[in-house]
Amino acid sequence: MHVPESVTAYPQFSGTTSFPWFKALFDQNFFDSGVDIFFNFLLFYVPAGLLGWTVTARVKKGLSDTERQRLRSRFIGIVSLVGLILFCVVYFAKFRQPYVDYASVAALDGTNVIFPLIEYSYRDIDLMAVSQGPSLEHLLGTDREGRDVFTRLIYGTRISLTIGVVAVSIYTSIGLVLGSLAGFFGGRVDSIILRMIEIMMCFPVLFLILTLAGFIEEPSIFHIMLIIGLTGWTGIARLVRGEFLRLRNQDFVQAAIALGFTQARIIFRHVLPNAVQPVFVSATFGVAGAILIEATLSFLGVGPANAPSWGQILTSGRNTQQMTLILSSGFAIFLTISLLNLIGEGLRDATDPKLRK
């Protein structure tokens, strides 16, 4: 944005060329959700990580397979740790900038301003355009508060996918650890973990989630992620346990035990990498299930009220009987779940040739 020296309303822009979009990505006056800050942070960090991966890939050419794998693991660990630290710094710094009416700045003579393709924010309220139908100005219309439905649907994509991915990551981690311990040690450890799995499976998942959500006064996106993550680990644990029971008596495990490796190294570096293939397939289906659970919670009024998730848009459409809101969010949920299920079936066929048709 280039602003001439004649500007008096906003002297900080006088005679300068500025890019307020970069600052606005981390402005917590606007992005009050950590999910938004996280995705905006990835816009810069992922390209930097890919560049570093490209540079290290050239170094790997002169190394052995073991050294190459070790370098790859260290690089992923360092990049993940540095990314987590930088994100925490950005998020907890609580960066805020004063409000600027860029439309007024654009109206000044000689001022060049570039606006985004989508004019509206997901929470911009227009009381003069409440509950409107689709039009050229609002492609999918507006809700009862005058917010643009198309913009909220786009923002809801990353909210819903984040809920699915993070929730599945939580219960996959729990299931991997408990299933590995049960399958490797057997005996009393296996019995205790199996009783835990059976107790969790006795409760209907949806009613258990609704009960846990009832104890939260103001449910947020992170609460939904945590609740789904803490209640869905039983299937992963059973899969990993079965794979460990199959693998623990094979020759490479017995050789590792004979060499005196620690039990933690045998479990997590030798057996677990050979037991995670069915977990990937189950996790893919789990992301679709988590998105559907979030939509169900929002539809029942338990989910976050202000987050522009697909479930919240569907709930708003149910309350106002606006078919645009119902059909747009419902189609987004249906399409995403269908694609994730197809990906899961493809992974299952690829990892198990016996299932190929």
From TrEMBL:
Membrane topology: Multi-pass membrane protein
Presence of the UniProt keyword Transmembrane helix in the record: yes
Domain ABC transmembrane type-1: 157-344
InterPro entries associated with the record: BP-dependent_transpt_permease (IPR050366), MetI-like (IPR000515), MetI-like_sf (IPR035906)
Secretion signal span: none
Top-level taxon in the UniProt lineage: Bacteria
Transmembrane segments: 37-55, 75-93, 159-185, 192-215, 221-240, 280-302, 323-343
Classification via Pfam families: BPD_transp_1
SUPFAM superfamilies (alphabetical): MetI-like (SSF161098)
Chief site of localization: membrane
Keyword Methyltransferase: no
Localisation per UniProt entry: Cell membrane
Keywords (A to Z) from UniProt: Cell membrane, Membrane, Transmembrane, Transmembrane helix, Transport
One cellular-component annotation, GO: plasma membrane
Cited CDD domains: TM_PBP2 (cd06261)
GO biological process, one term: transmembrane transport
PANTHER family: D,D-DIPEPTIDE TRANSPORT SYSTEM PERMEASE PROTEIN DDPC-RELATED, OLIGOPEPTIDE TRANSPORT SYSTEM PERMEASE PROTEIN APPC
Family to which this protein belongs: Belongs to the binding-protein-dependent transport system permease family.
Protein name, per record: Peptide ABC transporter permease
The species this protein was found in: Lujinxingia litoralis
